[in-house]
Predict the structure.
Amino acid sequence: MTLLEPPSQVDGVESGDGSSVTAARFAVSLTRAEAGERLSTEDAEALLAASGPQLDLLLKLAGEMRDAGLEASGRPGVITYSRKVFIPLTTLCRDRCHYCIFVDTPAQLLKMHKPTYMSAEQVLAVARQGAAMGCKEALLTLGDRPEDRWPEARAWLDEHGYTSTLDYVGAMARLITAETGLLAHLNPGVMSYDELRMLRPTAPSMGMMLETTSRRLFEEPGQVHFGSPDKDPDLRLRVIDDAGRAGIPFTTGILVAIGETLRDRAESLIALRDIQERHGGIQEVIVQNFRAKPRTAMQGAPDASVLEYVAAVAVARLVMGPHMRIQVPPNLSDPAEFDLLVRAGADDWGGVSPLTADHVNPERPWPHLDDLAAMTAALGFELRERLTAQPEFVRDAGTWIDPALHGAVAALADPESGLAAVHNAGSTVPDATASGADPRVSGVAAPRPHESILRSAAASTGIRRLAETAASDPLALEDAEWVALLGAAGADLDALTATADDVRRYTVGEAVSIVVNRNLTSSGLRHAPGSAEQGTFTVDEAAQIAADAWDLGATEICVQGRMPASESPEGYLALARTIKTASPGIHLHAYRPQDVWDLADRSGLSLEQALAAMRDAGVDTVPGTGVKVLSERVRGLVAPEDLEIDRWIEGITAAHRAGFGSTSVLFYGHVETAGERIAHLQRLRELQSAAKAWHAGGGFTEFVPIPLPGHGVALVEGRSALDEHRAMVAVSRLLLSGSIAHIQIPWTRVGRPAAAELLRAGGDDLGGTLLDGRVRPDAGVEQGLELPVKDAATIAARMFRPFRVRTTDYKEPAPRPARATP
């Protein structure tokens, strides 16, 4: 079939509002699109209804149009993204959208110990860490005009000297660029023409989703936008039009499957096309798929189907033309769907952060940038970094970028392509804006990043000031200052944990996560059947254990423990193969450095060969356990049977070099000193830096501070056990921020009530459910301790934090295939 031939099917397809789109109508519309004609609403509606062979034809044409546009733009075969930090300036809002979990009420903020607005110090702490990780964009997202609904917002603005939330947005945008060189992208919601002009000197680009032109969804009680004054479609179209008149590169788009019909979807795209033809200021159109979220009015609504979403991407391309950038958020689709999205004409992944969560979709983590580049390459495209403004607008800065920002943009842009220039991570652009910083924020005129905060720290060595310095730059503190933080008590400890929790909130986000797993102690494997010894099992029983764990919903089996000398070292590999054969979809998290060395030494293999054999046998990641503190003095006193420290470091380094991710731990509260704890954390940062140099997606996925059972020696005399744990978690969060993202709370060691408190001290993860299972439950090292998903969700709910079930590597679990029925 050629592109212009009508499909063989003749049946009509539903348009979503009860009408029928015929195959003939589709063929006519596709022919018009191929000829480059200006599509009508009827054309777009017909194309949106494509399925089967029609959809294949639609994708082919959309992909060809995208390729032609990239060729004309001078970057053939390039898909772009922006490396960003996400700054949720406030989660208060005057709207009540039925699918949103970003927004809080003042009462919820109070219960979560969350500020009304991020402070300037909190904003800078995130921006500086992002700059250190090579980010160039600071995305400021917030609710619409919260002071119009909430007296608490109005009081905060008055107290801090700002006339409005938008006034504060502009101040923070100027501050970020002046102090870090990052360019702000503003998403503050509905604005007037004058307000857009007021903010133009503070940011090279702005944005606001149109979502839909459907008035029914806005006016009808019970629909998604009812009761949300800023979701009036006419009002939002006016803002997008005003942004074009104001000369602002503007990001907008549609949200697919929130109750709109295909006709609504078509009208939305045509409306955006009409605005673009008037002003040319729309720099990219996002086509975003609806994903249902818990604790919302739409939590039971189905997600956008993949094929209707892909059709919407393709039609957006055909309506908007070859020179528009069509953006699809990569964290809202499964990687297996990327091929369809690219075939549909997408050419931009949007903003992706190596530091901060997607605070609007906290249950959907960003893909790692290395993984995104590899997946993009596998689809035949090159991933390139851009700035907040798309390259065409950067190259025509005289028209589209305010003169106050020309220096800041030029410092980060490649002058020929308009894409992001290659800078070393951590490079910043001092004094980048002619407009300077907001005079109401102290210390903003610093001639270099961090200087204002460091000056303040030098003037006051108090715990609060040290914590604020650490939040902004973990590398700025000396070891003695970290030791002082570990010793915080009373009000100082409260200040420390609050600061650490803010760092957690504004980097990894609010979600509390857990993996559904079970433990299996490999030292219990016996090849000879019939052993009555507690905790032992055979290879056949291991297969049954793996199948049972999968049936119970587990996505991970954690296997560790040195096998007895009486057992062949081949047992390590045989056990791995057995588990993966019995449950191919399960993630095998197996073998500490001590276990790997045992396999290597007794098999006559090198360390690298042993790791390769483990990979071939099915091991996916490795536990970074088997060490208490990275100190030979401590090992000799409390764990002489543990692997020597140098060999542990060599083992975990080899695993990282081989591409294995791992956990990391510290056992505390025994003979170690505060200085040895800090040295341990600093060494983990060094190991992580090395791991990321080999493979940016590898290294330590998490850090677990674990009180050593049976000890409980306090660093501070008279300080409670809970406060000892709070100090340890808070310092871990601050010192490891920007290096190891996740701080896991060992609920099995501290108990559930204390675990909840530690989640308020900088923790974000509860580890695993530790299912005992129905087959040889005694074979797990922590048998009898389970945290079912519903119990973990209850812990998060009582803290007013979202909850997510994760995989071992902190991704979304793949949908499970339906079990076949007889």
Q: What stands out?
A: The longest strand covers residues 78-90. The chain has 32 helices and 20 strands.
